Structure formats: C-alpha cells, structure tokens
C-alpha cells in the first residue's frame, strides 16, 4: 500500500502521533468514496458496499467484543414502544390507530416513535 493511503488511514483510525493541530479531518459516511478499491471482492456476486458493511460489523465485534442485534418488533413490542414514547398507557382507540399506522409501514421502533409524535 502506498504511504499516503496509510497516513490517511492512521488519521481516521487513530495513531500514537495524533493529527497535526492545523489539520481538520472530515469523514464521509459514504465509504465507497473514501476506501480504495482493489477490484477484488471476496464474495463473488456481492455488492462491494455490502462487503464493507459486513466488515464494519465484524470490526465492532473484533475491537470491542460487541455484537449488536436488532430483533424484529412484534405487535406487543410495537405497542409497548408507542406507549413508552407517549409516556403513558395507550387507550383502546390509540392501539387500533397505532396498528393501522403500522400496517402501512411495519412494526419497528422508528414507526412507533413516528406514530407517537403524530399524537403529540
């Protein structure tokens, strides 16, 4: 690998030296524009961005011993999340409305928050 790439990588990932005081490092969330491509993809037929996402997930686990899972919401958990965002129990009418709202968008924490905000 070339020296410039290694210096940039050290700047983003950290090093013992630290960045110079007159340098501001900005990182893009769109990795495909920052990470150099070699043309090789270890997973044939896979999108390079999907490979990057897999590597990011593995890096979290390797660095910090973390495994993040987001189990799917079911109806009961969705209604519990709506009530949590409202800060109070739901009425029967609110439960029916919340379920109608979720039919269009699915059961998730984000949808629960959106529905709760629509009531506030």
Automatic annotation (TrEMBL):
Lineage top rank: taxon: Bacteria
UniProt-listed PANTHER family: SLR0930 PROTEIN
Protein name: DUF815 domain-containing protein
Taxonomic source organism: Thermus tengchongensis
